[in-house]
Specification:
This protein has 84 residues and is of the alpha+beta class. 56% of the residues lie in helices and 18% in strands. The chain has a two-stranded antiparallel ribbon with strand order 1-2. Helix 1 packs across helix 3. It is globular and about 35 Å long. 14% of the residues are buried.
């Protein structure tokens, strides 16, 4: 079941982005925020499981993280509405 959450996170939040990279710490911080928002107080999957899924989809993690991937940014339209 944890694999489903991880796949959901990666599909929703991680995108191919040439020139960008995601480090392990950043990945875990974003996953923790996403998981709490979407799953509440359920037990979070282990970091090693998330790293394995990222490696399957985006290749081996280098010393400084996965290269040519980035986080999907939330739509900025909300910010524009707040400026009115």
């Amino acid at each position: 079941q944890g694999q489903d959450h991880i796949s959901g996170f990666i599909n929703e939040m991680v995108i191919s982005q040439p020139g960008s990279k995601i480090g392990k710490r950043d990945l875990m911080e974003q996953f923790k925020i996403w998981f709490q928002d979407s799953q509440g107080n359920k037990k979070m999957p282990k970091g090693v499981e998330i790293h394995e899924q990222m490696t399957k989809k985006y290749g081996m993690c280098k010393k400084d993280g996965w290269h040519n991937v980035g986080f999907m940014l939330p739509d900025e339209e909300e910010d524009d509405i707040n400026d009115l």
